[in-house]
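Still learning folds. Look over my entry:

…
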Amino acid sequence: MGPRSNPEPATNRNPSDPGLARLLKGFSIEVMPRTAEKIPDFRAILPAGTLVYVAHIEGTPIRDMVRTARRIRSEGFSVMPHFPARVIPDRPTLKDWISRYQDEAGVDSALLLAGGVSAPIGDFRDSMQLLETGLFGAAGFSRLHVAGHPEGNRDIESDGSSDQADTALLWKQRFSESSDAAMAIVTQFCFDAEPVVRWTRRIQEMGVSLPVHVGVAGPARLQTLIRFALSCGVGNSLRILQRRARDVTRLMKPFEPDSFLKGIDRLQATEPAGNIVGVHFFPLGGIATCSRWILENGGDAVQPEPTHSSRRSAP
């Protein structure tokens, strides 16, 4: 295997779409331990201070998660590891994970979610139970994010309704009002702006005022995105991918999120869209590919530090 390298730094510092660049400012991005290993130096591809989520897939040892968090923090980034309720066996394990992230990696932020498995392996089934333990507050975690599902979540409601998800969001809103931590919602990735904006407006009308970070699928092959969309339960906006797949001339081209994000910006300009404060990238086509697209479309606000933009791995 040849040496790994970071992508060439972007040269487009004056993006053609100011609205798109505005949305990209302050973006966050998600990595896993095995994908993070492919990036020699995150400082070459991300602006300083970027919030990097460390996704926890079932079966990943906690030592790998903590090591990845420590490495990314050492390069100057904020880190938010996942705490998937359904793969945490019990309260002592949860307390141990919190302590290890805090003591070994200096982490004080977390994304709490149910997790991508259908049945709990232990005592926890959802993020509310994790919050109820009080362990994050006792540890002094300053930022806690929770998941949102603009197009529903079949793991929660198989009939496609949103009653349970709405009730859970209202519970989390009340919890945030008594918590010292800054709380926000990060959504599952979608491909159609209108359902996302409608959802943010609807939950705001319900009384949920938590800031919303909209999930965005980074550039990837269309077949890859359809596979992830099906496995993650993405709803109505999947039709956008399926329509594109019927066009053979477009099937071979990478799908990019510019239309989706421009749709968000356009709808926000027409009427304020809930409480959208930023975007969060799921780099389904690879971290390097995703970061390159962000740098090319985000202008000065998303450029890495000049001293690192030309770094290369040693031969």
Notes: The longest helix spans residues 91-105. The domain at 18-309 is CATH 3.20.20.220 (TIM Barrel). Strands lie at 28-31, 51-54, 78-84, 109-113, 143-148, 182-190, 212-217, 276-282. The chain is about 40% helix and 15% strand.
